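Thread amino acids onto this structure.
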């Protein structure tokens, strides 16, 4: 058997809280290479009782005389779980197998270390992620790609929505087929496309529904796809949207199949429960400009929708906290008019004090309830909007979470809105989830104001509070979440479980809740014989759909609970979610899918894997990176030193914690170029030693062979050649060459310094928003070629240019359950190290890619020669 060769596919789904509703169904796109004909693309979706089973199939043939690469791209919802990916080549199918992530990880790492092609899933807009995989197809061969995923559809503003991004890019036999089966009966079904005229859409689209069944198909002919009569490219590029809802003759519906039940609850026509709402709004300097104007526009629109029975207040926070009123006030026309004037006068200022602002709002709601200044049958809600991280007052996320959790005490929900990407979304999400709310990312776009209004509309009309679903005692097992603080108009509560006795004749479910006028109980009793008739609809349903729905919902809720769990509780939640993921073949943050197929008499392996947002493993940039064969070294950030070692397919990292103004010797080589030091600056707002964060604000590079020096700061680059001096701005794009030396400045991004063909450094410029008061611009330093450095090279980075070995063993849970500890033996020292990750910004300065590494504590002690203070020098040169 030939040596194994690997093709690695990584599904790194960066999951956040997606908008509720019908699944964001896939778009498909097959990029053709010369000689490749894509002759069919089909999406088949079966929806049974809100549970969607989606299959995306694309077929291609290689007409060329040589092997060609074909890429298969699919956009799928962030909340979906992939259940299978298969390759069929010349009639032989190679299925995927779901394995525990750590088992598959070793295969992936081996593949990446060999520099083979990789597949990945990355964010594609707000609600979708794009799955991409490339394979080599032999001359004359046919290939079929088939991706299957499942998702529970959530009701959003009174409907389920299917959102397809249609973009085939070429003329192709193209089919979208959606079959819907709803035992309650379908009340509405519609479809529209933004990219095609109504005349053309009418002949390409068919839709129908009757009773329990609905059908939608979209089959544009080749002529309908053409952008002009003689064109070969497709005009199909845009959104294809399907919406539907079900009959609501009864507020609840229970379905039972094969020993599992699902209970849908969505009453209509109830009076709205009055609410007390506090808006906690970030007005720090980073909200300047369009974000602030869009926030004010949204708040003004929201004020139009506030009901007269409601109570409200506004809290603004920057470096300090201010309130519109000292306490909650009723939403009378006079108060609403005064609130509008207050909102219009909001302006940005200062820093970000999240902790005090939230505690002020929580205290206000608690006080109103305690003093009975709001109606007894009312509910409380707190909504916070921020675009950054806390940087004044209490700024530790875990402490803010603790303070907020203790203050709320489970009495009402917290909803967190994160404006943009420059914030710790995990922190906002975790804090909201543990206080019975949710987080939503608001994207910086022209419709940001509409996004904010849309979120408020979701929570504007509570119909019930203290909702709890009850079932016969000892009759059910493995129940999903069955209690909720609120039921909002237009949404739906879904509870699923397993029957303890499958032979019972009837099943009774009850939902209790507090309404605006009185307490309510809704009961539903199911005749088991009548329920069996659902199994007769074999053309529309897949028989185990309720069991899979239960597994999907259970895993989803276990993973949510896991985000705020610690120690033994987190281990138990992880074990339960992992067991179900493996049993039901779901690719979740705990599992990976492996596809193995023979190719040229060798093995080719694909790995698919889905971490949650913030997971340290298998981020999409890691998956797509096919790194260099030689080691490379860099220092960036606070500062983080990273040593990448391809032979180990691993990396070691450490930090240096020193006072601002300290200069460190990074590399010293008496025969070549030496980055003599990095001057450490301090980020504003971090003056105390415990929370101090430093960075490299100045770098110096000097030649031992020529009288040549380079000084780099975030403001400019200064080149000394003997007595002559040249200054360049980061706004320049310029190249300087002399005697084998090359200095190239890439405008606002990076500077590359190379000497001959064996020494190359990259300096990366990190620029922060100019009005951000807590951060400076700073620099990162990367050694991308050290072959030309001599055997005498040393320094914090330079010492690792020489071969060295290390061994890692005894991997075990650490103080942070997401970051295991291990024992490392290196340079005759035995160290306790922690698994983590750092960022590499060489290729993507704004986002970077994650590099997994073993972190050496105590300023790298035991890894570096001597101690870190041995590398402090008095000046840059």
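Threaded sequence (877 positions):
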């Amino acid at each position: 058997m030939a040596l194994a060769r690997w093709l690695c596919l990584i599904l790194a789904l960066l999951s956040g809280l997606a908008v509720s509703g019908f699944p964001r169904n896939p778009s498909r796109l097959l990029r053709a290479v010369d000689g490749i004909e894509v002759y069919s693309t089909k999406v088949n979706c079966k929806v049974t009782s809100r549970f969607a089973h989606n299959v995306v199939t694309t077929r291609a043939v290689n007409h060329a005389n040589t092997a060609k690469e074909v890429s298969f791209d699919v956009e799928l919802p962030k909340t979906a779980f992939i259940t299978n990916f298969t390759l069929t080549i010349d009639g032989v199918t190679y299925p995927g197998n779901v394995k525990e992530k750590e088992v598959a990880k070793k295969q992936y790492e081996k593949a990446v270390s060999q520099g083979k092609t990789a597949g990945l899933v990355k964010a594609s807009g707000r609600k979708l992620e794009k799955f991409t995989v490339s394979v080599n197809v032999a001359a004359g061969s046919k290939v079929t790609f088939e991706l299957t995923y499942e998702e529970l559809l959530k009701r959003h503003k009174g409907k389920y929505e299917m959102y397809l991004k249609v973009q085939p890019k070429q003329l192709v036999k193209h089919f979208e087929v959606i079959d819907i089966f709803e035992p309650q009966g379908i009340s509405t079904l519609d479809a529209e496309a933004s990219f095609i005229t109504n005349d053309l859409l009418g002949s390409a689209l068919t839709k129908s529904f009757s009773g329990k069944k609905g059908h939608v198909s979209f089959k544009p002919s080749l002529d309908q796809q053409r952008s002009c009569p003689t064109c070969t490219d497709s005009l199909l590029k845009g959104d294809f949207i399907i919406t539907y809802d079900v009959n609501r003759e009864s507020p609840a519906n229970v379905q039972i199949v094969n020993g599992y039940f699902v209970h849908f609850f969505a009453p209509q026509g109830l009076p709205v429960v009055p609410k007390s709402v506090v808006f906690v709004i970030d007005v720090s300097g980073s909200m300047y400009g369009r974000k602030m104007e869009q926030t004010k526009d949204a708040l003004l629109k929201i004020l139009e929708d506030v009901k007269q029975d409601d109570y409200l207040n506004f809290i603004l926070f920057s470096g300090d906290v201010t309130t519109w009123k000292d306490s909650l006030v009723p939403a009378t026309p006079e108060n609403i008019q005064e609130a509008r004037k207050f909102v219009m006068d909001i302006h940005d200022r200062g820093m970000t004090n999240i902790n005090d602002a939230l505690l002020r709002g929580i205290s206000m709601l608690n006080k109103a309830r305690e003093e009975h200044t709001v109606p007894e049958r009312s509910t409380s809600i707190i909504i916070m909007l921020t675009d950054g991280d806390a940087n004044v007052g209490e700024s530790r996320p875990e402490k803010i979470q603790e303070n907020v959790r203790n203050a709320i005490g489970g009495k009402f929900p917290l909803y967190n809105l994160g404006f943009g990407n420059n914030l710790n979304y995990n922190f906002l999400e975790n804090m909201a989830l543990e206080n019975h709310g949710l987080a939503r990312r608001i994207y910086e776009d022209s419709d940001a104001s509409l996004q904010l209004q849309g979120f408020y509309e979701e929570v504007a009309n509570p119909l019930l509070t203290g909702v709890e679903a009850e079932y016969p005692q000892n009759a059910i097992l493995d129940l999903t979440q069955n209690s909720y603080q609120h039921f909002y108009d237009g949404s739906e509560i879904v509870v699923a479980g397993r029957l303890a006795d499958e032979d019972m004749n009837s099943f009774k479910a009850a939902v209790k809740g507090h309404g605006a006028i009185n307490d309510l109980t809704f009961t539903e009793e199911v005749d088991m014989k009548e329920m069996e008739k659902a199994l007769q609809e074999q053309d529309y349903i897949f028989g185990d759909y309720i069991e899979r729905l239960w597994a999907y919902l259970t895993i989803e809720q276990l993973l949510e609970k896991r985000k705020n769990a610690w120690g033994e509780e987190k281990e138990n939640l992880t074990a339960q979610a992992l067991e179900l993921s493996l049993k039901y073949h779901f690719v979740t943050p705990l599992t990976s899918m492996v596809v193995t197929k023979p190719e040229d008499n060798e093995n080719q392996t694909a790995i698919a894997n889905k971490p949650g947002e913030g997971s340290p493993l298998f981020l999409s940039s890691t998956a797509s990176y096919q790194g260099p064969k030689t080691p490379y070294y860099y220092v960036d950030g606070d500062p983080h030193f990273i040593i990448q070692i391809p032979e180990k397919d691993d990396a070691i990292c450490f930090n240096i914690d020193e006072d601002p103004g300290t200069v460190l010797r990074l590399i010293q080589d008496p025969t070549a170029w030496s980055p003599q030091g990095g001057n450490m600056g301090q980020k504003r707002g971090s003056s105390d030693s415990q929370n101090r964060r430093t960075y490299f604000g100045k770098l110096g590079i000097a030649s031992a062979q020529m009288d040549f020096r380079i000084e780099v700061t975030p403001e400019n680059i200064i080149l000394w050649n003997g007595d002559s001096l040249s200054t360049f701005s980061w706004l320049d794009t310029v190249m300087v060459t002399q005697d084998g030396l090359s200095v190239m400045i890439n405008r606002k991004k990076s500077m590359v310094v190379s000497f001959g063909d064996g020494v190359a450094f990259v300096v990366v410029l990190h620029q922060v928003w100019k009005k951000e008061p807590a951060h400076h611009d700073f620099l990162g330093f990367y050694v991308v070629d050290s072959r030309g450095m001599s055997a005498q090279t040393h320094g914090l980075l330079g010492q690792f240019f020489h071969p060295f070995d290390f061994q890692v063993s005894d991997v075990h849970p650490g103080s942070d359950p997401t970051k295991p500890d291990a024992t490392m033996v290196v340079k005759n020292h035995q160290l306790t190290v922690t698994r983590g990750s750092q960022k590499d910004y060489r290729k993507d300065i704004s986002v970077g890619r994650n590099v997994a590494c073993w972190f050496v504590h105590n300023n790298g002690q035991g890894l570096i020669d001597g101690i870190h203070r041995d590398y402090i020098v008095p000046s840059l040169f």
